[in-house]
Write a structure and sequence with these properties.
Distance between the termini: 54 Å
Oligomer: single chain
Strand content: under 5%
Order of helices and strands: HHHHHHHEEHHHHHHHHHHHH
Mean pLDDT: 80
Largest sheet: 2 strands, antiparallel
Shape: globular
Helix content: over 70%
Structural class: mainly alpha
């Protein structure tokens, strides 16, 4: 088994160094320039959209319109589903691993990728809304759907769907399960396999309820867990406010390989910052568009803006809290890794209460991410086959995956995530680069209506040459 993971790690090093990072940086900069930094200049619109109520569509849906009206999924719920996957162990264990392996400089490159990567998130989410499909009781969509209906390449959609299922339905779940079981096992001295069994059973209860139960769960749990964790981070930062300038200087120096401990670490810092940043905020990866597609909204750009906000929330806010908690503790080079490093840092600041709080936080973070990841995988299983039996079988596989994650090592789990996530990201970026002009047109349409003092509304007749490929938006 060790030889298998050695080969996987060698492939990962080549794939990320020469392909994934280059593509991510190119797309992030290109989209930021092309949409004139929409992720910065429309911040006010992002906050306005998040409170939008679900809109129209009743007349276009078969069946009882009143039933459809009560089952709509609004912008905030769709945002919460995507955030439930984004805000997870990547924010706690992932940031800690990045600092452990790449040094404090990895945090700087996480920030850079988030600031520019938010433009990539805007493009992919807007496209997911444009090409979403209408299901029995909700919309659905994502990269596999815009590859089939936008690029007319079903083979590409099938390839992406398989990669996403492997990444989010299996590999990513292993990391979430491993981190959660590590935290609970360390806190309560319980065998991790029993924790894995209990976690699998709890997850099955939610996922068998479908997207409405998933979105409802996420809209309640995600804000609660994120706000609580950020408040703890702010308290620690205020307590150590005099040390913040030196920590920022440490991050910047190490980001560029400056200093006796940072020499030769430049490439590692960049690699870890980009990889763990992508794992956490998912910008360009092709996962969040699956959640963006389910929202009832008046214009595709609105979900694009919300997904950009999700990247900022995840990395600039939550990941930064973890980074400062670790760096202010001085334990970042102690040899501890993952969630144990974050736990040790919290205990350094606020005593044993920090460990107790982190155990509760990691449970909420990891559990909600398990649910969000499952939803992404199920959406793509439905793309490949509409058979209910396939979905049922995958729900059982999901439970078994969670149990397997409990007994793996963290680095083995990361290795599997990195390779599947890397290939999936390449496929998605290749698609959105070709479809980006559609998103540019939608943004122009949104801005024209907004400048005219209107609440932007899109109809597929506004893009007549693509009308046959757009199922919704009557």
């Amino acid at each position: 088994m060790s030889e298998f993971f050695r080969i996987i790690n060698s492939i990962n090093d080549w794939l990320w160094t020469y392909v994934v990072i280059v593509l991510l940086v190119f797309c992030a900069i290109y989209f930021t320039v092309r949409i004139r930094g929409v992720q910065f200049r429309l911040l006010k619109d992002m906050w306005r959209v998040i409170v939008d109520r679900p809109v129209g569509e009743e007349s276009a849906v078969d069946g009882d319109a009143n039933e459809v009206r009560h089952r709509k999924i609004g912008s905030f719920q769709a945002f919460a589903v995507s955030l439930s996957s984004r805000v997870g162990t990547g924010n706690l264990a992932g940031v800690a691993s990045a600092i452990c392996v790449g040094g404090p400089g990895a945090v700087f490159w996480m920030w850079i990728m988030a600031l520019f990567g938010a433009a990539t998130a805007f493009i992919e989410a807007t496209l997911a809304q444009l090409y979403k499909r209408r299901g029995k009781d909700s919309f659905y969509g994502g990269p596999a759907y815009y590859m089939q209906h936008g690029l007319h390449r079903k083979w590409m959609g099938l390839l992406f769907a398989v990669l996403l299922i492997l990444t989010f339905g299996i590999a990513n779940q292993l990391v979430q399960s491993n981190t959660l079981c590590d935290a609970l096992g360390d806190a309560f001295s319980i065998d991790k396999k029993w924790i894995g069994l209990a976690l699998a059973a709890m997850t099955v209860v939610i996922i068998f309820g479908g997207i409405h139960r998933i979105s409802h769960f996420a809209s309640i749990v995600v804000p609660f867990m994120a706000i609580g964790y950020v408040l703890i981070g702010i308290v620690i930062i205020v307590m150590k406010i005099n040390e913040i300038p030196s920590v920022l200087a440490l991050i910047v120096r190490n980001a560029f390989g400056i200093g006796p401990m940072a020499g030769g670490m430049f490439g590692t810092a960049v690699m870890q910052g980009v990889k763990r940043g992508l794992f956490s905020n998912e910008a360009g990866e092709g996962s969040a568009p699956n959640a963006a597609a389910i929202a009832h909204t008046s214009h595709p750009v609105k979900q694009g803006l919300l997904q950009s906000l999700g990247v900022f929330t995840d990395t600039i806010v939550v990941c930064t809290c973890t980074a400062f908690i670790i760096l202010l503790s001085g334990l970042y080079d102690s040899g501890a890794d993952g969630i144990i490093l974050t736990k040790n840092a919290l205990e350094c600041h606020i005593g044993k209460a920090g460990g107790v709080f982190l155990t509760a936080a990691i449970f909420l973070f990891a559990y909600s991410t398990l649910i969000g990841n499952y939803f992404y995988a199920e959406t793509n299983i439905r793309f490949i086959t509409g058979r209910k039996s396939a979905v049922f079988i995958f729900r059982i596989i999901s439970a078994l995956t969670i149990i397997a994650g409990a007994v793996m090592t963290l680095q083995e789990a990361w290795s599997l995530v990195d390779i599947t996530m890397g290939v999936m990201t390449i496929v998605n970026l290749a698609a959105i680069l070709q479809l980006a002009p559609k998103a540019f047109r939608l943004l122009d349409n949104y801005m024209e209506q907004r400048c005219a003092g209107k609440d932007p509304v899109f109809r597929r007749a506004m893009m007549p040459e693509d009308e046959a490929d757009i199922e919704c938006w009557e």
